[in-house]
Sequence to fold (364 residues):
Amino acid sequence: MLSGIRVIEIEGLGPGPFAAMLLADLGADVITIHRKGKSGQVTADGSVLDRGKRSIALDLKDPDDMVTAKRLIATADALIEGFRPGVMERLGLGPADCHADNPALVYGRMTGWGQTGPRAETAGHDLNYIATSGALHYASEPGSPPITPATLVGDIGGGALYLVVGLLSGILNAQATGKGTVVDAAIVDGSAHMMALLMAIRQTGMLSMDRGQSLLDGPHWSRSYTCADGGYVSVQCLEPQFYAIFLEKLGLSDDPEFQKQHDAKLWTKLTARLEDIFLAEPRVHWADLFDGTDACVAAVLTPEEAMHAPHMQARHVWQAPEGILQPAPAPRFDGRLAPLNTACRRGEHSEEIMAELEAQQTGS
Fold:
């Protein structure tokens, strides 16, 4: 889908490399400027996040390598960098520098706090960003501190995916106008924006700011349970017809208390009853019991287990080329699964890329 689009990625951490990988999965020519040598290496050589990319190793403090970097950026549709505000400017690769050579460049800046604001130049990590944005608030049971979730909410959801949306929007605009733009992708912005659905639910009165009191985090039918073998199952049968199937499979259809699905006063008691029920059998028992039904129950799987789950296996979602577990590209177009690209090695394509630049210069 992105064939013909070139993206230059300045080696960084987390959301920037993920965004570049996603663009490579979609067919863009992504060239990563990796740091020369092992010192300063921030990702493992051949990282999953480098799949589908080409790599050139440069020292951006070396004048000759800086010339090469600028020549590369001049050929690009987009650039990705993830330093603190001002770092790229001090290197001589800020937006103004790059737009002087490439006015149509879409300059993507990936940070936690954003380019402006009181915290813009201070350190932080995923947990800090989503704590500040409001996205962490519901990540716990009532009365306990919010847990540290995997970086999916901040780095990936609120960061990388919003950067990709911004870059693609900027590229479309540049193709129409010839004018580039600067994309300020901040995890605090994106993770707060992701809360819009919950805020819409709040407008209906079904979402409380108190944890454990809302439809999505309070009821006995919207949580995970521990099984006899220490595994877990997830339950979220919100709609009454799905809740009815859930009760029927558990033999609780005639229980007067369970019939009161939305009686918040019973949620704690019914949760305790379900905890005892699910503790009586191992996870596989419950997975088999609810398999193929609309009860909205699913076993909680590790990525390794998910690879062998029938549905995930049928869609080839998880793959392990050369023993390296990784997810397949997403989304799919016309029902086809994109091939899994090989990860580049640091500096692997340096000679190839330099030869392309020389050929372009000779041709011009």
